[in-house]
# Entry
Amino acid sequence: MLAARRMVRRYRADPVPPEVVERIARVVHRAPSAGFSQGHRLLVVTGPAARARIAECAEEFRYETAWISAAPVHMVIGVREDDYHDRYTRPDKLEDGREMEWPAPYWWVDSGAFLMLVQLAAIDAGLATGFATVPRKDELRALVGIPDDVAVVGVVTLGYPAEDAVRPADTARLRSMRRPLDDLVRYESW
Ligand SMILES: Cc1cc2nc3c(=O)[nH]c(=O)nc-3n(C[C@H](O)[C@H](O)[C@H](O)COP(=O)(O)O)c2cc1C
# Structure
């Protein structure tokens, strides 16, 4: 099942029942986060006019089809970096009395894990999802009122997959581009 996971850019027009959206929300509520900082934020948008505006912020015109606005549910993913600094300046996380040197910006690490958990929770609920980065972030912020201390990661699009949701030609193209498994995975030593 998960081996067949794909980003889907073709959805049926059918709305997604609110209880299905809530089920996904309950799953991602349990997303992992560094130090349990819980910097994730999720904004669910279903109104067609707002989705059309979000699609503009994501520069949908660059794609072959209007797949972003067509998805019946948008989940805007945000992350609040300050939650990480707040958490890692608590006594149990201090190193020599100071906030640690970040090995990587964990708020972005967690955002990737969160994005994937949204996708997997949606698949588990019978939906398909895509992901679009948002070049016009400030426009999106103003549109839906995202506060200044929350960074926009992107938009997950959700809906029931169209019959031709994953076209064989696209799959063949990806297969031809995919790195060999041996390039990705090594065992015991590099
Ligand atoms: C961080 C991230 C950003 C992405 N941005 C976009 C995007 O802006 N537009 C898009 O159509 N797909 C986007 N994708 C989806 C990738 O293009 C997709 O995962 C990749 O082509 C492999 O296809 P698959 O996930 O269906 O196997 C993004 C994926 C990730 C993880």
Q: What stands out?
A: Residues 2-180 form a domain with the NADH Oxidase fold (CATH 3.40.109.10).
